[in-house]
Amino acid sequence: MSSSLVEQDRRRRAMLLLGIAVMLVVLWQTPLGSLLLYPFTILATWFHEMGHGIAGMLTGSKFDSLLIFPNGSGVAQMRTPVDESRLQVALIAASGPLGPAVAGALLIVASRSVRSTRLALAVLGTALILSTLIWVRSSTGWIILPGLGVAILALARRGTPSWQRLGVQVLGVQACISAWRQFGYLFSSGGSIGGRLHRSDTGAIADAMLLPYWIWGLVISAAIVGLLWWSLRFALRP
Asked: What crossing angle do the helices spanning 161-177 and 86-110 adopt, rounded to 10°?
Protein backbone atom coordinates (compact mmCIF):
# COMPACT_ATOMS: atom_id res chain seq x y z
CA MET A 1 0.00 0.00 0.00
CA SER A 2 1.38 3.43 -0.95
CA SER A 3 2.18 5.99 1.71
CA SER A 4 -0.69 8.22 0.56
CA LEU A 5 -3.21 5.39 0.94
CA VAL A 6 -1.82 4.56 4.39
CA GLU A 7 -2.19 8.20 5.41
CA GLN A 8 -5.76 8.31 4.10
CA ASP A 9 -6.64 5.15 6.03
CA ARG A 10 -5.07 6.57 9.19
CA ARG A 11 -7.06 9.79 8.89
CA ARG A 12 -10.30 7.91 8.23
CA ARG A 13 -9.73 5.76 11.30
CA ALA A 14 -8.99 8.83 13.44
CA MET A 15 -12.09 10.65 12.18
CA LEU A 16 -14.22 7.54 12.80
CA LEU A 17 -13.07 7.26 16.41
CA LEU A 18 -13.44 10.98 17.07
CA GLY A 19 -16.89 10.82 15.50
CA ILE A 20 -17.81 7.94 17.80
CA ALA A 21 -16.60 9.98 20.78
CA VAL A 22 -18.74 12.98 19.83
CA MET A 23 -21.75 10.76 19.08
CA LEU A 24 -21.50 9.03 22.46
CA VAL A 25 -21.29 12.31 24.36
CA VAL A 26 -24.26 13.78 22.48
CA LEU A 27 -26.40 10.66 22.83
CA TRP A 28 -25.69 10.47 26.56
CA GLN A 29 -27.35 13.87 26.98
CA THR A 30 -30.71 12.59 25.64
CA PRO A 31 -33.18 10.15 27.26
CA LEU A 32 -33.29 7.89 24.18
CA GLY A 33 -29.53 7.93 23.80
CA SER A 34 -29.05 7.06 27.46
CA LEU A 35 -31.38 4.10 27.02
CA LEU A 36 -29.60 2.86 23.88
CA LEU A 37 -26.20 3.24 25.52
CA TYR A 38 -27.21 1.75 28.88
CA PRO A 39 -24.50 -0.97 28.97
CA PHE A 40 -21.90 1.69 28.09
CA THR A 41 -23.35 3.91 30.82
CA ILE A 42 -22.77 1.18 33.40
CA LEU A 43 -19.28 0.59 31.99
CA ALA A 44 -18.55 4.33 32.25
CA THR A 45 -19.65 4.29 35.89
CA TRP A 46 -17.44 1.27 36.55
CA PHE A 47 -14.41 3.03 35.04
CA HIS A 48 -15.17 6.15 37.09
CA GLU A 49 -15.68 4.46 40.46
CA MET A 50 -12.75 2.09 39.98
CA GLY A 51 -10.64 5.19 39.38
CA HIS A 52 -11.68 6.48 42.80
CA GLY A 53 -11.19 3.10 44.44
CA ILE A 54 -7.73 2.40 43.05
CA ALA A 55 -6.56 5.93 43.89
CA GLY A 56 -7.91 5.47 47.39
CA MET A 57 -5.96 2.25 47.90
CA LEU A 58 -2.79 3.85 46.53
CA THR A 59 -3.11 6.78 48.95
CA GLY A 60 -3.83 4.78 52.10
CA SER A 61 -7.61 4.33 52.13
CA LYS A 62 -9.47 0.99 52.22
CA PHE A 63 -11.69 0.36 49.19
CA ASP A 64 -14.67 -1.50 50.67
CA SER A 65 -17.24 -1.73 47.90
CA LEU A 66 -18.55 -0.32 44.64
CA LEU A 67 -22.25 0.42 44.17
CA ILE A 68 -23.80 1.00 40.75
CA PHE A 69 -27.43 2.12 40.71
CA PRO A 70 -30.04 1.44 37.99
CA ASN A 71 -29.94 5.08 36.81
CA GLY A 72 -26.23 4.75 36.03
CA SER A 73 -24.89 6.64 39.03
CA GLY A 74 -22.43 4.98 41.37
CA VAL A 75 -20.25 5.37 44.42
CA ALA A 76 -16.99 3.86 45.64
CA GLN A 77 -17.29 3.29 49.37
CA MET A 78 -14.00 3.76 51.19
CA ARG A 79 -12.63 4.11 54.67
CA THR A 80 -10.13 6.95 54.74
CA PRO A 81 -7.41 7.64 57.33
CA VAL A 82 -8.31 10.17 60.02
CA ASP A 83 -5.23 12.18 59.05
CA GLU A 84 -6.06 12.23 55.32
CA SER A 85 -4.48 15.29 53.71
CA ARG A 86 -6.07 17.76 51.32
CA LEU A 87 -3.83 16.43 48.56
CA GLN A 88 -5.07 12.88 49.14
CA VAL A 89 -8.68 14.09 48.97
CA ALA A 90 -7.99 15.91 45.71
CA LEU A 91 -6.15 12.96 44.15
CA ILE A 92 -8.95 10.51 44.96
CA ALA A 93 -11.58 12.92 43.63
CA ALA A 94 -9.64 13.66 40.43
CA SER A 95 -9.04 9.97 39.74
CA GLY A 96 -12.75 9.43 39.09
CA PRO A 97 -12.78 11.37 35.83
CA LEU A 98 -9.04 11.16 35.02
CA GLY A 99 -8.34 7.51 35.87
CA PRO A 100 -10.63 6.22 33.11
CA ALA A 101 -9.05 8.65 30.64
CA VAL A 102 -5.60 7.24 31.41
CA ALA A 103 -6.91 3.67 31.12
CA GLY A 104 -8.67 4.53 27.88
CA ALA A 105 -5.54 6.08 26.42
CA LEU A 106 -3.61 2.89 27.25
CA LEU A 107 -6.28 0.77 25.55
CA ILE A 108 -6.02 2.91 22.42
CA VAL A 109 -2.22 2.75 22.47
CA ALA A 110 -2.44 -1.05 22.80
CA SER A 111 -4.20 -1.22 19.42
CA ARG A 112 -0.88 -0.67 17.61
CA SER A 113 -0.21 -4.41 17.52
CA VAL A 114 -2.34 -7.56 17.38
CA ARG A 115 -0.67 -9.05 20.44
CA SER A 116 -1.06 -5.99 22.67
CA THR A 117 -4.65 -5.55 21.46
CA ARG A 118 -5.57 -9.08 22.55
CA LEU A 119 -3.75 -8.64 25.85
CA ALA A 120 -5.54 -5.35 26.58
CA LEU A 121 -8.94 -6.89 25.86
CA ALA A 122 -8.13 -9.90 28.05
CA VAL A 123 -7.00 -7.67 30.92
CA LEU A 124 -10.10 -5.47 30.69
CA GLY A 125 -12.50 -8.41 30.49
CA THR A 126 -10.83 -10.13 33.43
CA ALA A 127 -10.80 -6.90 35.46
CA LEU A 128 -14.55 -6.47 34.96
CA ILE A 129 -15.27 -9.97 36.24
CA LEU A 130 -12.81 -9.95 39.15
CA SER A 131 -13.78 -6.47 40.34
CA THR A 132 -17.42 -7.56 40.37
CA LEU A 133 -16.54 -10.49 42.61
CA ILE A 134 -14.32 -8.43 44.93
CA TRP A 135 -16.00 -5.03 45.22
CA VAL A 136 -19.36 -4.71 43.46
CA ARG A 137 -22.29 -4.89 45.89
CA SER A 138 -25.31 -3.95 43.77
CA SER A 139 -27.60 -5.96 41.51
CA THR A 140 -27.12 -3.62 38.53
CA GLY A 141 -23.38 -4.21 38.62
CA TRP A 142 -23.77 -7.95 39.08
CA ILE A 143 -26.07 -8.20 36.07
CA ILE A 144 -24.25 -5.93 33.59
CA LEU A 145 -20.53 -6.05 34.37
CA PRO A 146 -19.84 -9.82 34.16
CA GLY A 147 -21.73 -9.96 30.86
CA LEU A 148 -19.57 -7.18 29.46
CA GLY A 149 -16.47 -8.93 30.76
CA VAL A 150 -17.40 -12.21 29.08
CA ALA A 151 -18.18 -10.41 25.80
CA ILE A 152 -14.82 -8.64 25.84
CA LEU A 153 -12.99 -11.89 26.63
CA ALA A 154 -14.84 -13.58 23.77
CA LEU A 155 -13.69 -10.81 21.44
CA ALA A 156 -10.11 -11.27 22.67
CA ARG A 157 -10.26 -15.01 22.03
CA ARG A 158 -12.50 -15.38 18.98
CA GLY A 159 -12.56 -12.03 17.19
CA THR A 160 -10.65 -11.27 14.02
CA PRO A 161 -7.69 -8.90 14.38
CA SER A 162 -9.61 -6.08 12.67
CA TRP A 163 -12.60 -6.43 15.01
CA GLN A 164 -10.31 -6.72 18.03
CA ARG A 165 -8.53 -3.53 17.03
CA LEU A 166 -11.77 -1.63 16.49
CA GLY A 167 -13.18 -3.02 19.72
CA VAL A 168 -10.26 -1.99 21.91
CA GLN A 169 -10.15 1.45 20.29
CA VAL A 170 -13.88 2.05 20.83
CA LEU A 171 -13.61 0.85 24.44
CA GLY A 172 -10.62 3.14 24.91
CA VAL A 173 -12.47 6.13 23.49
CA GLN A 174 -15.48 5.32 25.67
CA ALA A 175 -13.28 5.19 28.78
CA CYS A 176 -11.62 8.50 27.91
CA ILE A 177 -14.88 10.39 27.51
CA SER A 178 -16.77 8.71 30.36
CA ALA A 179 -16.35 11.84 32.50
CA TRP A 180 -18.53 13.71 30.02
CA ARG A 181 -21.46 11.33 30.35
CA GLN A 182 -23.05 13.99 32.56
CA PHE A 183 -21.73 17.46 31.82
CA GLY A 184 -23.83 18.86 34.66
CA TYR A 185 -22.04 16.73 37.24
CA LEU A 186 -18.51 17.55 36.10
CA PHE A 187 -19.29 21.28 36.02
CA SER A 188 -21.32 21.45 39.22
CA SER A 189 -20.65 21.47 42.94
CA GLY A 190 -22.69 18.33 43.61
CA GLY A 191 -25.43 15.95 42.51
CA SER A 192 -27.72 13.09 43.49
CA ILE A 193 -26.23 9.59 43.70
CA GLY A 194 -28.48 6.76 44.79
CA GLY A 195 -31.07 9.26 45.98
CA ARG A 196 -28.61 11.15 48.20
CA LEU A 197 -26.84 14.43 47.63
CA HIS A 198 -23.08 14.09 47.17
CA ARG A 199 -20.30 16.56 46.53
CA SER A 200 -19.14 16.33 42.91
CA ASP A 201 -15.56 15.33 42.13
CA THR A 202 -14.71 18.85 41.00
CA GLY A 203 -16.46 20.24 44.08
CA ALA A 204 -14.33 18.01 46.32
CA ILE A 205 -11.17 19.13 44.52
CA ALA A 206 -12.21 22.77 44.93
CA ASP A 207 -12.77 22.25 48.66
CA ALA A 208 -9.33 20.69 49.04
CA MET A 209 -7.23 22.77 46.64
CA LEU A 210 -9.04 26.11 46.27
CA LEU A 211 -10.19 27.56 42.91
CA PRO A 212 -13.83 27.13 41.79
CA TYR A 213 -15.18 23.72 40.77
CA TRP A 214 -15.79 24.85 37.19
CA ILE A 215 -12.11 25.65 36.73
CA TRP A 216 -11.25 22.10 37.79
CA GLY A 217 -13.90 20.88 35.35
CA LEU A 218 -12.11 22.75 32.57
CA VAL A 219 -8.68 21.46 33.68
CA ILE A 220 -9.92 17.86 33.75
CA SER A 221 -11.64 18.25 30.37
CA ALA A 222 -8.44 19.66 28.84
CA ALA A 223 -6.46 16.73 30.23
CA ILE A 224 -8.97 14.27 28.77
CA VAL A 225 -8.79 15.90 25.34
CA GLY A 226 -4.99 15.80 25.51
CA LEU A 227 -4.89 12.12 26.47
CA LEU A 228 -7.38 11.17 23.76
CA TRP A 229 -5.56 13.14 21.07
CA TRP A 230 -2.12 11.83 22.06
CA SER A 231 -3.24 8.20 22.23
CA LEU A 232 -4.98 8.34 18.85
CA ARG A 233 -1.93 9.94 17.21
CA PHE A 234 0.36 7.33 18.76
CA ALA A 235 -1.84 4.36 17.89
CA LEU A 236 -2.55 5.42 14.31
CA ARG A 237 0.84 6.71 13.28
CA PRO A 238 2.52 4.85 10.39
From this structure: 160
